[in-house]
Amino acid sequence: MNKLILVLISLFITANLFAQSVGINATGTIPDGSAMLDVSSTSKGFLPPRMTYVQRQAIATPSTGLLVFCIDCGSPTIGGELQIYSGGQWRNLTGSAASSAYPILAQTAVASSITFNSASSGGNVTSDRGVAITARGVCWSTSPNPTIADSKTTDAGTTGTYTSSLTGLTGGTTYYVRAYATSSAGTGYGEQIYFKTPGIGSNYGGGILYYILQPVDPGYIAGETHGLIAAASDQSTGIVWSKNNTTRIGTTSTALGTGLANTNAIVAQSGSGTCASSICLQYSGGGYSDWYLPSFDELMLMYNAIGQGASSPLINIGGFSNAPYWSSSEAPPILGNDVLINIFGGVNSDVTRLTSNYVRAIRSF
Known about the structure:
The chain is of the alpha+beta class and 365 residues long. It has 3 domains: 48-101, no CATH class; 104-196, Immunoglobulin-like, CATH 2.60.40.10; 203-364, no CATH class. 15% of the residues lie in helices and 30% in strands. It has 5 helices and 23 strands. β15 (203-204) and β16 (207-212) form a beta hairpin. The model is unreliable at 4-19 (pLDDT under 50).
């Protein structure tokens, strides 16, 4: 008897559910007459089915009006998208085509092998999220948050790590870089990094970059970057120019590009004695062994680029004293055996070669 009553009650409830609107609430409120299902709450929401893009695509014949929340559709920073199947196409709530699953990228690789016009970076595509990747690489710009509309590489492969070569850069410039991966779903980006290519005043090549050769300079090669680097600190605060104070060398020059030849000539004449040129040749700062005493023009370029004669913000970033610094250039014969110096407070002069003065070595690259 009890079983029969339960069956009759169940049939009655089922019949009423199909015959009228259903309300789900905590207050017993009658459902709105315009809705088959009326859910109301002031503390809880409605949860549609949650699934991945791959799972959504696996629905064989979705009915028009089918509603799901795709948990990995759209950019990973968005966090998913509510989607409805309409007219044979999945759409979002704005009526636009629903997003697919963008590729997931790990952090963009830190820039390395940075030169004046190139660098290396890369990325790691950790997941294609079920959609085949058609392109990957890095994109860069001088403005933050670069996209594939800016400069970019296209590197082989789909998922996993890769290395990218950035080319065509400009010296002394800050670049912003992001890894990217593209599929039919769109383009996903990795975290942004940035770096600066070497410029005047940069720590480079074992010292401080202070000059880049121009087309009119000796040694200039089109398409290549070459220049001069000053040692990061003084090699002496008081040493003679040469041990020979009686004979002119006669072959030294004041010109850009002649400092090394001058230095070798001075040491050849001075013999084994310690002098400004010899300590430059013996210097191995930054792991380099090709330092020399600058010619007068090379010394003046140093003063005007990274010494007291430089413009802000490069004024004396080389840490020079207001003291006389040797060049490797002899003064004109009319001045006898004097040598040209620059006092890094703004005075140029000539002094005898047995005077004790400061020394700052340079190297070329």
